[in-house]
Design a protein that fits this description.
Structural class: mainly alpha
Number of strands: 0
Distance between the termini: 34 Å
Helix content: over 70%
């Protein structure tokens, strides 16, 4: 219990020192951690990975992480 409290304290302290953009990235990552085991998310990642491989072969641009998260939501 004490370790958890200390860990929470360190996380909060670290987040407070981040820029607004970095804080948004932290929130995006937290959401990723929450959904990463969801079957529909796994299927989505597999589909997007295949699309990215095909896009790379064609010399096309890749979507940003933020764009992918908005699309999935």
């Amino acid at each position: 219990m004490e370790q958890t409290a200390r860990l929470n304290e360190l996380i909060i302290k670290g987040i407070k020192q981040l820029s607004d953009r970095e804080k948004q990235e932290v929130l995006n990552f937290i959401e990723f951690l929450r959904i990463k085991e969801d079957q529909s998310f796994i299927e989505y990642v597999n589909r997007r990975t295949q699309e990215a491989i095909e896009a790379k072969k064609k010399g096309q641009a890749f979507s940003s992480l933020e764009e992918l998260q908005k699309e999935y939501a």
